[in-house]
Design brief:
By secondary structure, the chain is α+β, with helices and mostly antiparallel strands. The protein folds into two domains: 17-129, OB fold (Dihydrolipoamide Acetyltransferase, E2P) (Beta Barrel), CATH 2.40.50; 133-189, no CATH class. Helix content is 16%, strand content 21%. The strands form two sheets. It has a seven-stranded mixed β-sheet with strand order 5-6-3-2-1-4-7, covered by helices on one side. Residues 139-180 form the MYND-type domain. Keywords: Metal-binding, Zinc, Zinc-finger. One of its GO terms (molecular function) is zinc ion binding.
C-alpha cells in the first residue's frame, strides 16, 4: 500500500515530455535520490527494428519511447500491458534530442532500465482520476460507516465496504472490478 498520497497534479513530480530533463553530455544532472514520473498514454506500437511506442503526455505532446539494445521480438510489449490506450509511467525519464533539430525528441530506455517503465491498464484520464484516491472513511457503495467499521478491498487496499453485500455490489455494479486493477498497478509503482 502506498505510504503517502501521490499528487498527480504536481508538475515537478509528474512533468510533461517537454519539461523533463534532457539526456546527453551537456545535460544537467539531478540530485541523488530525486525521482519524477513521466505519465503518458500509448497511441501506437511503431516497432520495426527495436521496441518503439508512440505516446502522448498529459498536455497531448506526442513522443516516441524507444527501448535501446533490444530487438523487435526481445520485449513482449503487449504481454507487458503496453497496449493502445494503456497508460505508461516512466521513472526519471530523460528527453533525447533528435539529430535533426526540426524534429521532436524522444525517450530512450537502455536495455537494463526497462524495469523503470510500467504499464497501467487504463487511459491516462482514468489514471489521473484514481491516482490520488486514498482510503475512504465511508462505504464506497452506500456511503455508510458500517457497524464494525469498513472492510478494505484486499486487492487495492483503497476501497472500503461496510458489508459483503456492498462489496459485491461495488465490485459488480460500481466499477471497482476495473478500478481495482488500476489502483493495484499504481500501488506497485508508488510503494
Amino acid at each position: 500500500m502506498t505510504s503517502s498520497i501521490i499528487d498527480f497534479t504536481n508538475t515537478t513530480l509528474f512533468p510533461t515530455f517537454l519539461t523533463i530533463p534532457e539526456q546527453g553530455p551537456d545535460a544537467v544532472s539531478s540530485p541523488a535520490g530525486e525521482r519524477w514520473y513521466l505519465l503518458a498514454e500509448v497511441k501506437d506500437n511503431m516497432t520495426i527494428t527495436k521496441p518503439t511506442l508512440v505516446l502522448t503526455d498529459r498536455d497531448a505532446n506526442p513522443f516516441a519511447l524507444v527501448f535501446e539494445g533490444l530487438g523487435r521480438d526481445d520485449l513482449d510489449l503487449k504481454g507487458l500491458g503496453f497496449k493502445k490506450g494503456a497508460s505508461v509511467i516512466i521513472i526519471n525519464a530523460r528527453r533525447t534530442k533528435p539529430a535533426d533539430e526540426s524534429k521532436r525528441g524522444f525517450v530512450r530506455i537502455e536495455k537494463g532500465d526497462a524495469g523503470n517503465v510500467t504499464a497501467v491498464p487504463a487511459a491516462m484520464e482514468r489514471v489521473l482520476e484514481l491516482g490520488g484516491k486514498i482510503k475512504g472513511h465511508s462505504c464506497e457503495t452506500c456511503g455508510g460507516n458500517g457497524e464494525d467499521g469498513l472492510k478494505r478491498c484486499t486487492g487495492c487496499e483503497r476501497a472500503g465496504y461496510c458489508s459483503k453485500e456492498c462489496q459485491v455490489k461495488g465490485w459488480n455494479e460500481g466499477g471497482h472490478k476495473k478500478d481495482c486493477r488500476i489502483l493495484r498497478a499504481l500501488n506497485d509503482i508508488f510503494k
